[in-house]
Amino acid sequence: MIIVTYADIAENALQADLYLPEGEGPFPLILGVSGGGWIRGHRGALSAWGSFFARAGFAFASVDYRRASAETPAFPGNVEDVAAALRFFTEAGREHGIDPQRIAVLGVSAGAHLGALASLSPAFNCPVPKAFAGIYGVYDLLAHWQADRAVNSVTAMDKTECLLGVKPFANPLIYHQASPLRQITYDRAMPVFLCWGHVDREVAPEQSAAFAVALRQAGYPVTAVELPDAAHLWFSEEAPDAPGSFSARIAPALLRFFRRVLTA
Asked: For a Cys-Cys bond, which of 52, 93, 112, 245 suits 98, CB 3.0-4.6 Å?
């Protein structure tokens, strides 16, 4: 693994952990966006998947992005950070053994939200990836806020409000602009892989199910893997080669997806 700096934001370097296969490139790239509820987390959470994909012949880059706090919203800056990574590896990929024409995005939880927005919305002015994969992601911000309000104390810090810096009924438009579900258009009908668990208490399963329906209605080829007994966090906590793990259960399907969309 090597560390690559792909952007500087307010004198803070944004970096990627880059995993490369053995041998000669250029290799297809999977751009990984880790989770953490928009307020925490680290790119290192996807290290096991980086090694897994490199062994399978893919380059994998797990990228930094800005985090939110109660005082500092992160949107749209955090999506712009993911977009900056897409631009960097498209423009300078060959210097790092990467084929800039074969780049896909893989996002996890909050990272799936950011990766989906960068992939689907023209507002972020970045190259359109060949495909997108989302693991138990957030795709409709208003619905996510409502689900959190239903189970959490109204006095607790709300992560969606931290992300956007405002309550939904004070600024409905920003909740619309920040929702990948609302950015689906006919002209970006890339292949999409979605996976979610039916007993997820952090991100409602309906987030992924509704996203899959809308994508299919717009003509996107969607591969959906549902895990009836899975909750949240497992993708980052379990290695894809751990026997009996949820990660091991979906790893073959995920690998087939990326082989189909990036190496055909």
From this structure: 93
pLDDT (tens digit per residue) in 198-222 = 999 999 999 999 999 999 999 999 9
158 CB-side CA count, 13 A: 21
- Indicate the number of domains in the chain: 1
In tens, the pLDDT along 146-203 reads 998 877 666 667 999 999 999 999 999 999 999 999 999 999 999 999 999 999 999 9
Cα separations in angstroms, 157 against 10, 89, 93, 163, 207: 26, 36, 39, 11, 21
Write down the pLDDT at residue 155: 61
Gyration radius of the chain over CA positions: 17
Q: Which residues pair with 30 in a beta bridge?
A: 60, 104
CATH code of the domain in which 69 resides: 3.40.50.1820
The two three-digit tokens of residue 180, written as one number: 């990948």
